[in-house]
TrEMBL record:
Coiled coil: none annotated. It comes from the Bacteria. Residues 5-59 form the HTH lacI-type domain. PANTHER family: LACI-RELATED TRANSCRIPTIONAL REPRESSOR, LACTOSE OPERON REPRESSOR. This is LacI family DNA-binding transcriptional regulator. Pfam families: LacI, Peripla_BP_3. Keywords: DNA-binding, Transcription, Transcription regulation. GO terms for molecular function: DNA-binding transcription factor activity; transcription cis-regulatory region binding. SMART domains: HTH_LACI. It comes from Sphingomonas naasensis.
Length: 334
């Protein structure tokens, strides 16, 4: 046997044709479970790794997909990348990581050039790239498979992995209301993210359900970044009376709120409760640890890659969110 095992050697030991081995490696249907198991055992025993070039030449697929992202949160991007990468690796695909400028007038042409140059089999879109009609239209026109993570627009169209942002934001706000807070500030994220408006909607729905009037002055725009969260918090904390709680649309902004509170010697949570959204690594790194809504970002990206590469999975998947109550929220001050 050669130092590097071949697909023919795998097929000989497994007692199947090399085409059957190829079907198993490509996760294709019409292979019995017993045959699939036998081939996978031989592949593992020989530590067989199929040649990417040979697989490409053997068919029309390149076994490459790209993840397109444009997000100021490094924590979000990291977890999206690792989740998608894990599933692609499991299924024998190479994942290309491609940052893009979602505001660029050349976005669509740049993405199409990437698709043509890399001969991509599909693309995974993360927000806010998920919300660009011209890009979706061109992908549809070309018939190229794509899956969206947390889409806002055209929710029912195509493949998507998401959570219920409205319900999740409502739950965070209701947590604060349950602690006795009535003056609750809200820092919204980038306008280009549909989730920004869905989280604002959830916040408003919770207020209305508890008979609390919506105050536009308690809503401040942020940019999903630590710096913008601090700037927005300072605006809210200058109000008299100032809010007793602030809900930020992501953890980066919530961390900025916490820093602004520390700068002003405002006790958290004694004088001010703070909540975020995502449950990123940052939420557990700040002090006090941040109460936040867990959005399973890594799992969403994993599910998105699975939807694209495992057709039997289906078209849409909605994952569960979970409120993570930590030390930045407490009873409203009397």
């Amino acid at each position: 046997m050669s130092s590097r095992p071949t697909i023919k050697e795998v097929s000989k030991i497994a007692g199947v044709s090399f085409k059957t081995v190829s079907r198993v490696l490509n996760n294709e249907k019409h292979v019995s479970e017993e045959t699939r198991r036998r081939v996978e055992e031989v592949v593992a025993r020989l530590n067989f790794r199929p040649s990417h070039a040979a697989r490409t030449l053997a068919g029309r697929r390149s076994f490459q997909v790209a993840l397109l992202y444009d997000n100021p949160s490094p924590y979000y991007v990291y977890h999206v990348q690792t989740g998608a990468q894990q599933r692609c690796s499991e299924l024998g695909y190479r994942l290309l990581l491609q940052p893009v400028d979602s505001q660029s007038p050349d976005l669509v042409s740049n993405v199409m050039a990437l698709i043509d140059e890399a001969h991509l089999d599909g693309v995974i879109l993360s927000p806010p790239v998920t919300e660009i009609p011209a890009l979706l239209d061109e992908l549809d026109r070309r018939g190229l498979p794509y899956v969206r993570i947390a889409p806002g627009a055209r929710k029912e169209a195509g493949m998507a992995a998401t959570i219920d942002d409205v319900a999740a934001a409502r739950e965070v706000t209701e947590h604060l209301i349950g602690l006795g807070h009535r003056a609750i500030g809200f820092i919204r994220g980038l306008d280009s993210h549909v989730s920004t408006w869905e989280r604002l909607q959830g916040y408003r729905e919770a207020l209305a359900a508890h008979g609390i009037a919506f105050d536009e002055d308690l809503v401040v725009a942020g940019e999903n970044s630590f710096t913008s969260g601090g700037e927005a918090a300072r605006k809210l904390l200058e109000r008299r009376p100032r809010p007793t709680a602030i809900f930020a649309g992501n953890d980066d902004m919530a961390a900025g709120v916490l820093a602004a509170a520390h700068e002003s010697d405002i006790d958290v949570p004694g004088q001010l409760s703070i909540a975020g959204f995502d449950d990123s690594d940052l939420a557990k790194a700040v002090w006090p640890p941040l109460t936040t809504m867990r959005q399973p970002v890594r799992e969403l990206a994993y599910a998105a890659a699975d939807l694209m590469l495992s057709p039997e999975t289906g078209q849409q998947v909605t994952l569960e969110h979970k409120l993570m109550v930590r030390a930045t929220t407490g009873p409203a001050p009397r």
